[in-house]
Amino acid sequence: GFIIEAGHVYGNHGGGWVCLDLKTGEKKWGERGVGKGSICWADGMLYLFGENGGQAALATCSPTNLEIKGRVKVEGQGPSWAHPVVADGRLYLRYDDTLYCFDVKAK
Description:
Elements: E1 2-5, E2 8-13, E3 16-21, E4 27-31, E5 37-42, E6 45-50, E7 55-60, E8 68-73, E9 85-87, E10 90-95, E11 98-103
């Protein structure tokens, strides 16, 4: 998936994460992050979930760089194509046959 925010496109490309200028298509940055996976945006942050290995990360939504603010690893096997979901201050991750829930409310 891709996120459009403040004139930039954030998403997965070539096994990593990329930020593009929406008008020009210029690549602002490319980073490995948690590897190929899915994305969501909430409260000004990007939530990244890797397709393999159960790796998830919280990152700044910035055209300058991808700055990882926190990481979590969940247990399971095989690839996951489920997108992370943020609702009411909780992050939901589905991996394998388990649904995980994390409190991500600002403290």
